[in-house]
Every structure is written in structure tokens, then in C-alpha cells.
Design goal:
Elements lengths: L8 H9 L5 H15 L6 E4 L1 H16 L11 E5 L26 H8 L3 E6 L11 E2 L3 E2 L1 E2 L2 E5 L5 H8 L5 E6 L5 H7 L2 E4 L19 E6 L2 H11 L29 E4 L10 H11 L8 E3 L8 H24 L5 H10 L4 H22 L4 E5 L15 E2 L2 E2 L8 H8 L3 E9 L5 E8 L4 H15 L12 H4 L4
Parallel strand pairs: 2-3, 2-8, 11-12, 11-13
Antiparallel strand pairs: 1-3, 4-5, 6-7, 8-10, 9-10, 9-16, 13-17, 14-15, 16-17
């Protein structure tokens, strides 16, 4: 298929500005795709069709009248159901908020609207973003477009599915332990985890914990970067907000990989990784490794990374949801309960030690990135599992200590405060999307994105690593 909704956001933006297509025409095409496919996927859980159509007409008039146009003018956008949207139901994937309609947009959404983006709907997420399986007690599970019985990842799974199937060209996500990167990998799309503060997150429950960030998702690096430009800025309610990198105002240019020093590692030295994914990554890395100035095959130091992640995540969950668990335990999903219950068992000394461990990890990471430019590794540890399961229980006959342990490949970089980009890298052994991460030091977002763009180009030239596209015909309604 090659309908409007399958084109890139950058291409569509150019077509709108040149009057080749109208925003109304594009909105209608995206709605048609949602209505034909989402019955089998459950990605776009709250629709905003009528308001979107009215905004598209206004956007078309602005083009015709020669107004100055925002970065996202006329482009349909999917917004993760953790972000507050004025006048549009925001459930946070929780029965406690099943009928909640915010009176105003949160900052990240307001910026998208200000740049001309048109909110087409809210995308599904696990309750309060807890878990890498987009499944909740309000809307149920979101299926993977490559196998609807399997998970799309989480917690930004609805956005990833909407992108992979052409429901929207750009969508928002958020990331703590891999919530943006895991679904991007599982669905064959792009996700950018910015450095803390690049996209203000004034609603973060614990303001002084920088680990949870907001970021863009799309089908290409260029498209994700376009949305990042619109999302970035300054908000004094986020203590880490530092505004956009000056380079974000510029056109994204690919990095010259012959000037880049890279570390290539299958597991960051300590993350759980399946044998099959180790093998796939080793073969795919051969497709791009020779392009770099130098390649280091050692590992970063993430000693005690599992421990500090679990404890500091526990702190965050007890703060954000402890009272909800006390008052509404029977209405909450298992992942929320697990995080809060385990978090309450930690002592003050446990938390203090975890902060020390995380500080060492982040300093070691920065020292490493003073010697090299980027670290490249897989984006997930195993192939997508059945969404009827809440999480991965074991990998290669090894039991996971907690429901999060299989996500070490994404949450360890979070402990380092790394920025990163997940890009598609073909299919795995089970014919499901396989992705890789390009990681860098906090503040090096522009460099990391430029390197990811260059690797994306290299991967697109090989049939085994090109971005996979789901079979839309098989997903469409047969009635």
C-alpha cells in the first residue's frame, strides 16, 4: 500500500505546504486506516475525529491564506494516554481515571498544538505506564501488527502500533526503563529517548528524579526529530528543563560515520539477553560496523545497575501510587501493585546506597563517552511474547527475578541518564521486528540522532535489515 497515511511526516508536511494535499484529506485518510485496522489491534483507544476534522479545515485555510505555519502544521498526531489532553479523555490506562477529561493540555501537548499538530486520538498504554506490555483494565491489550496475539511492548505500545500501521505519521511516547524504546523495537518503528529536560515533563511525580522522560516516535529518524523539535523547550516546572539544544533548530544532517568512534556490545556487559538475539545482533552489526572510524567491542560498567534501578523505581512508584494502592488495591493492575509493594520493603539505607550506585554508573558512562561517541546494542532481549502474559518470566530457561528484569538492556542506560534512539533492523528469528539502540552521553542528543540517521540509511540498503512493514491487508476488517 502507498496511501497518504503511509508517507513520512516530513514528506506530508512538504505536500501540505505546497498545497499538493490538504490537511483535511490527510486526516480523513488516517481515520479510514484507523477504522479499517484498529479493530484487530486496539491502539487508538480514544478518538478525536470531529475536533480533528474541524482543526484540519482551519489548517487548510491557513495554508491557502499564506499564514506562517508551525513545524507540524496539519499533521495528525497520536498522543499517549498518559499525557493530559484538554477536552479529550485521559485514562492513564487506569479504571480510576476511566472517565477523566482534563481541563487543559499538559505542556508537551500544548506545544504540539502550538506547532500546528492535530490530535487525532489517544494511544493505549499499561496502567500508569507500568510494564512493557500494553495491557490495562480499561481498554484491554494492544496487539502487535506483525502478530496480533503478541505484545507490542510498552508502555508506549499504542503509539508504536499506530505508527507501524499508518494510523498517524507521528506519535508521542514516554520512557523510564524502556517504555518508548521497547515498543519501537517490537513494532519496527523509531523512538527517541531524549536527555532529561530536553522535553519538559512538568507532571513527573517526583520532580527531582530525572529518569522518566517524554519523547517522540515515528517511522523514520527524520520524522521523530521533527516531532522532537516541536516538543522541546523550557518549562520552569520541570527542574531539569534546559530548553532545546541549539542544534535542534537546524535541519537534521546525517553524521559522517567515518569520524565516529563506536562501542558495539550485545548486552552492555550485564543485561539479560537471549542467545538468539545475541546471534542476530552480531550478524546485523556486521552490516554497519565497518563504516565507523573505530569500533570497541568491550562493555560499559553497569555494576549494581539492576539493584539501583529496582530501588529508585520503587521510590518513584511509592510516591506516585502508594496512596492509590492503599485505597483502591482491587482496582489496580498487577504491575502497579508489584512496584509499590516491593518499593515499600526498601529501607532508607537501601535508597541511599541505590543513589550512590546510580551516581557511579552515570559518571562512569560520561567518562566512557568522553573516549568514544556512541554505544550500540540491541533494543530488546527477546522476541515479543503473548500479550495474554503480563511480562517475560524467563529467557533461555533462566527465571527473571522481577517482572522488569528482562528489560535491563533499556533500563541500564536510563540509570546512566543516557540519551538514545531505537531504530528498526529487520526481522528476528520469529519474523517479528528487531531493533537496535544508539546511545550517548546526556546532552549529546544531536550527535546520537545524527548517527542513528546514518545507520538507518545503511540498514535500509540491505534486505535483512530494512524497516519491516506489517501486512495491512491482513489487519483490515473483512466485513
Amino acid at each position: 500500500m502507498n496511501e497518504l497515511c503511509d508517507l513520512s511526516a516530513v514528506h506530508l508536511s512538504g505536500m501540505i505546504r505546497s498545497k499538493e494535499i490538504s490537511p483535511a484529506e490527510l486526516i480523513d485518510n488516517c481515520i479510514d486506516r484507523i477504522e479499517s485496522c484498529d479493530g484487530k489491534l486496539n491502539a487508538m483507544v480514544t478518538k478525536n475525529y470531529e475536533r480533528a476534522k474541524e482543526e484540519a479545515k482551519l489548517a487548510e485555510r491557513k495554508v491557502l491564506d499564506g499564514h506562517n505555519l508551525g513545524l507540524l502544521h496539519g499533521l495528525p498526531v497520536g498522543v499517549k494516554d498518559l499525557e493530559l489532553t484538554q477536552g479529550l479523555r485521559t485514562t492513564l490506562g487506569s479504571k480510576l481515571y476511566a472517565n477523566y477529561i482534563p481541563e487543559e493540555d499538559q505542556g508537551s501537548v500544548a506545544k504540539i498544538r502550538a506547532e500546528g499538530g492535530i490530535l487525532l486520538g489517544k494511544t493505549n498504554t499499561p496502567e500508569f505506564g507500568a510494564g512493557a506490555n500494553t495491557r490495562n483494565l480499561v481498554f484491554g491489550a494492544t496487539g502487535n501488527p506483525f502478530d496480533t496475539l503478541k505484545t507490542c511492548g510498552g508502555s508506549s505500545g499504542g503509539s508504536a502500533v499506530a505508527l507501524a500501521t499508518g494510523m498517524v505519521p507521528i506519535a508521542t511516547g514516554s520512557d523510564y526503563g524502556g517504555s518508548l524504546r521497547t515498543p519501537a523495537s517490537f513494532c519496527g518503528v523509531v523512538g527517541i529517548r531524549p536527555s532529561p529536560g530536553v522535553v519538559p515533563a512538568e507532571a513527573r511525580p517526583v520532580a527531582l528524579l530525572p529518569f522518566s522522560v517524554l519523547g517522540p516516535m515515528a517511522r523514520t529518524v527524520d520524522d521523530a526529530y521533527l516531532l522532537l523539535q516541536a516538543q522541546s523547550g523550557v518549562n520552569r516546572l520541570d527542574p531539569f528543563s534546559n530548553g532545546a539544544d541549539a542544534d535542534f533548530c537546524k535541519k537534521l544532517e546525517p553524521a559522517d560515520l567515518s569520524n565516529i568512534n563506536a562501542m558495539i556490545t550485545p548486552d552492555l556487559g550485564s543485561a539479560v539477553m537471549s542467545k538468539k538475539y545475541r546471534s542476530i545482533f552480531a550478524k546485523r552489526a556486521q552490516l554497519f560496523s565497518h563504516n565507523f572510524k573505530s569500533v570497541n567491542y568491550e562493555n560499559p560498567n553497569f555494576e549494581n545497575g539492576d539493584n539501583c534501578f529496582e530501588i529508585l523505581r520503587g521510590v518513584n512508584f511509592v510516591a506516585a501510587h502508594g496512596q492509590r494502592v492503599r485505597n483502591n488495591r482491587k482496582e489496580l493492575s498487577p504491575n502497579v501493585l508489584d512496584n509499590v509493594d516491593r518499593g515499600r520493603q526498601y529501607t532508607l539505607e537501601d535508597v541511599a546506597v541505590a543513589h550512590l550506585q546510580q551516581s557511579k554508573i552515570s559518571r562512569d558512562w560520561i567518562n566512557l563517552l568522553n573516549r568514544i561517541d556512541v554505544v550500540i546494542c540491541p533494543a530488546t532481549a527477546t522476541t515479543p511474547f503473548l500479550h495474554s502474559e503480563w511480562s517475560v518470566n524467563e529467557i533461555d530457561d533462566i527465571r527473571m527475578d522481577t517482572y522488569m528484569r528482562w528489560l535491563g538492556i533499556t533500563y541500564l542506560p536510563t540509570m546512566a541518564l543516557a540519551c538514545g534512539v531505537t531504530i528498526p533492523c529487520g526481522l528476528d528469528h520469529a519474523s517479528m521486528p528487531f531493533g537496535i539502540q544508539v546511545l550517548g552521553a546526556p546532552g549529546d542528543d544531536s550527535l546520537v540522532i545524527a548517527v542513528a540517521k546514518s545507520i538507518e540509511t545503511v540498514l535500509s540498503q540491505n534486505s535483512s535489515s530494512v524497516r519491516p512493514i506489517p501486512n495491512i491487508t491482513q489487519l483490515q476488517n473483512t466485513n
